[in-house]
Amino acid sequence: MEPSDAGAPPDLRVGQHRAGRHGRTDPGRGRRRPAHTGGGAVTGPAAADDAATAGEAAAAGDAPAAGDAATGDAATQHSPLQHISVGGRYDVHIGPGALTCLTGHLSPGRRVMVLHQPGRAALVGEVVDLVASAGGQGLTHEIPDAEAAKEVTVLAGAWAALGRAGFTRDDLVVGVGGGAATDLAGFVAASWLRGVDFINLPTSLLGIVDAAVGGKTGINTAEGKNLVGAFHEPRAVLCDPAWMASMSRPDLVSGLGEVIKCGFIADPTILELIEADPQAVCDPAAPVMTELIARSVRIKAEVVENDLTEAGIREILNYGHTFAHAIEQVEHYSWRHGDAVAVGMVFAAELAVRVGVMDPELLARHRSVLDSVGLPTSYAGADWEQLRAAMARDKKARGATLRFIVVSEAGVTQRLVGPDEALLREAFDAVSASH
Ligand SMILES: O=C(O)C(=O)C[C@@H](O)[C@H](O)[C@H](O)COP(=O)(O)O
Ligand SMILES: [Zn+2]
To answer: Compositionally biased, Low complexity: which spans (predicted)?
Structure first.
């Protein structure tokens, strides 16, 4: 699937291949009003179809459709362990006891290198015990917390550990920790001997709803976030929500930034669940958390099933990220990723209103839902020139032309190509002003 340029037909609809069954092929759906001609080219709808379509395709069979609130909510909350297939290529196992799904990947003699963040001794110990029970050899290597894990020196340290262990192509890397840990572990696996197996055990909300699933692996460079990496899919992703129990509230809230992103791009029920009780969704043990995780993972699974390498539809998962990555870089990764994505979505929404794609009410909804869980909606830390230069390195850019995903209504996305510099600046001014 090739990404479209100005004036080309829509190409970013989740579940487009089945859209006829749902009767949602209207290419004008979601278009609020004609795009501002001077604002850049809006191709649309570069849309995620509604969540019922997305969830249905993503579900392995036992998981409910994401948009099927009547049946989905009950099933999601009562199912102890859910298995969400990513295109039949691997499964995401979510729920109590998820670790047991590791055993199918272990065998006598198989070496398993557990790359883990600090403070995960109990879980790492369980993994090593399982490996030993299967007759394999468990090895461990600690990596730093958060984005510090994604430095080239850490990558080199992990390679050295594999080298010392005599790691072969039959062996297995396991990543334990938040999104940065699984990004790093995936890239270690992608690059060692040109590719070995890996399995992710995300221990943060952001990790399970986003980073651990989808096969984007990589590290940061001084010039920008995730600039070096590879598409390399895990063999499985396992997540027991109990592993998230020790998350700090700011880390949990940051993960909600990616959950809310899924709401805006594909599954408005997510937004409704959060708006119904913003306090409940800040509790990792709340039943609604399982629901939010499953919905977000299903969106991601269907998108990457159809477009692993971000040739088209996958760009929708990058909603808010052009501005977000710029903040992260200029702030030397002191900002949490989900916090930056929250501000990035507000920036994209300010832009979308200016090019005539989004109603101001939907922009206001961005601010209110993000604000309700304590996510930031403004940023005034760096000047526009610095951020604009950082945005030029966005992976969606083509030459000097920036591309943004914009939302025309909740769950419906379009691609905005080459917006006017003046409108970008206006969007920044709006985001940097306090509201
Ligand atoms: O999986 C994707 O595709 C995404 O864009 C999801 C993002 O939330 C995630 O942060 C991703 O790692 C960003 O990728 P990048 O290509 O913009 O570095
Ligand atoms: Zn992200």
So the answer is: 43-76
Q: What is the token pair recorded at 278?
A: 């913003």
Give the residue whose CA is nearest to atom 13 of ligand 1. Answer: 318
Q: Examine the predicted complex and report whether its ipTM is higher than 0.95.
A: yes
Task: Judge whether 337 is annotated as a binding position.
Answer: yes
The beta-strand segments (E) located in 280-380 are none
Q: Is 366 annotated as contributing to ligand binding?
A: no
93 belongs to a structural domain: no
Q: Per the annotation, does 290 bind a ligand? A: no
Count of domains in the chain? Answer: 2
Q: The whole model's pTM is what?
A: 0.86
Is residue 179 a part of any domain in this protein?
Answer: yes
Helices 337-354 and 360-372, packing angle to 10 deg? 170
Using the mean position of ligand 2's atoms as its centre, give its distance from the Cα of residue 340 in Å: 9
Is residue 108 domain-shared with residue 24, that is, in the same domain? no
Task: Render the burial of 75-91: b for 16+ CB within 10 Å, e for the rest.
Answer: bbeebeebbbbbeeebb
277 and 390 fall within a common domain: yes
Same domain, 372 and 272: yes
Q: Which residue among 239, 273, 288 closes a domain?
A: 239
Q: Which of the listed residues 215, 239, 263 is the one where a domain comes to its end?
A: 239
Residue of 12, 182, 216, 339 best suited for mutating to test ligand 1, as the one with most atoms within 8 Å of CB: 216
326 annotated ligand binder: no
CB 341 within 8 A of CB 296: no
**Residuewise pLDDT in 10s, the chain (435 residues):** 333 333 333 334 443 322 222 222 222 233 343 344 345 666 654 433 332 233 333 322 233 333 333 334 444 445 589 999 999 999 999 999 999 999 999 999 999 999 999 999 999 999 999 999 999 999 999 999 999 999 999 999 999 999 999 999 999 999 999 999 999 999 999 999 999 999 999 999 999 999 999 999 999 999 999 999 999 999 999 999 999 999 999 999 999 999 999 999 999 999 999 999 999 999 998 989 999 999 999 999 999 999 999 999 999 999 999 999 999 999 999 999 999 999 999 999 999 999 999 999 999 999 999 999 999 999 999 999 999 999 999 999 999 999 999 999 999 999 999 999 999 999 999 999 976
Q: In this structure, are 329 and 298 located in the same domain?
A: yes
Q: Which residues form the domain of 43?
A: 10-72+249-432
Q: Are 348 and 405 spatial neighbours (Cβ–Cβ below 8 Å)?
A: yes
Q: Which ligand is nearest to the CA of 254?
A: 2
Q: What residues line ligand 1, using a CB cutoff of 6 Å?
A: 210, 214, 216, 225-226, 258, 310, 314, 317-318, 321, 395
CA of 207 to the centre of ligand 2 (A): 10
Pocket-testing residue among 213, 318, 395, 402, ligand 1, by greatest number of atoms within 8 A of Cβ: 318
The answer to whether residue 230 is domain-embedded is: yes
Tell me 209's DSSP state: I
Q: In 3D, which of 265, 250, 264, 50 has the Cα closest to residue 274?
A: 264
